[in-house]
Amino acid sequence: MNILEVLDKGGPVVWILFTYSVVALAIALERYLHFMRMRRLSSQFSFQLHEAIDKNELPALLVGLHGPEVAVISGIYQAYKDNVKDLVRVATRIGSQELQRMERGFRTLGLLGDTAPLLGLFGTITGMIKAFMVIEQAGGKVDAQALAGGIWEAMVTTGVGLAVAIPILFILHWLENLAARRTHAMHQYASIMIEKLPHQDDCIRMEDVRHHKETASGI
Question: pTM higher than 0.70 for the full model?
Fold first, then answer.
């Protein structure tokens, strides 16, 4: 059985699920390329960061570097140069902005992954309704050929719904793991900056970045 046959026998619900898969694939590819462009800093960067701050050579260290970690470091350093005392707030604000950029599209993937099985179940129910309507119209004389359409739709939509949802959820968790690693790195480098530069007594926590992001999103 080819894809066109599945789309034809599965009815409109399968077409919707096919659209789900196309949208999810587009988001996943875009997010993957986004993370690929954000090259990770070397394992020695923490030591280099300590040394650059001590020698007042931080701008030279950051030349040619990109990514959320660099954005946080640069933002904290610029705030320090501008005599901003609450560097923790600066780090939290920039960190939440970078996290939002990394997680763009994640909610859509989650929505697609969560609703795909429900759509499949909906298709199953409509397919069974069609099958029983055929039985009723036949007056109890069941014709297997007449029932085939409804049963096909019922079975195909369930399978397609699960086939679409499972990869989407795997991809979502994989992307979330990538974002979590980069968030941890942002926290690590921001903590080094906070420790090395004069600021108000406070502490920066991962929860602060998450809370700031959720507040900005109106959650």
Answer: yes
Task: Give 168-193 pLDDT, tens digit per residue.
Answer: 999 999 999 999 999 999 999 999 88
Report d(CA 6, CA 10) in Å as an integer: 6
Q: What's the CA gap between 191 and 204, in Å, rounded?
A: 7
Query: CB neighbours of 153 closer than 8 A, spacing ≥ 6?
Result: 9, 10, 11, 13, 123, 124, 126, 127, 130
- Residue identified by tokens 């991809």 is 171
Q: Please list, residue by residue across 39-53, b when 16 or more beta carbons sit within 10 angstroms of its beta carbon and e when fewer do.
A: eebeeebeeebeebb
> What does the domain layout of the chain look like in residue ranges?
3-38+45-216
Average pLDDT, the chain: 82
Per-residue confidence (pLDDT) for residue 21, from 0 to 100: 92
